[in-house]
Amino acid sequence: MAHKVRLFNSHWHLPKSKPLRIGLGIVLIGCGLLGFLPVLGFWMIPLGFLVLSVDLPAVRRWRRQLTVWWYRKKDDETGRDVDAGPGPKAK
Hints:
Elements: E1 4-7, E2 10-13, H1 18-32, H2 44-52, H3 57-78
Antiparallel strand pairs: 1-2
Helix pairs in contact: 1-2
């Protein structure tokens, strides 16, 4: 099965080799730390963590916690009660 990550509404295919994926994630984070240089950017750091989250359970857990936090915050801003389930806000 080909590994892929979803970022917003697009899917990105990753290499099939686990060492290659881990190396790619580390390189992206390392280059992101040099984000003050032209072409490289700080945007590479979260992308590197996203690639690493496919293979490393600790990083996957952080990504999942961030995703849950993001959607809860988004629901709070729209006025929906997250615990009330779908439908109008419970009073």
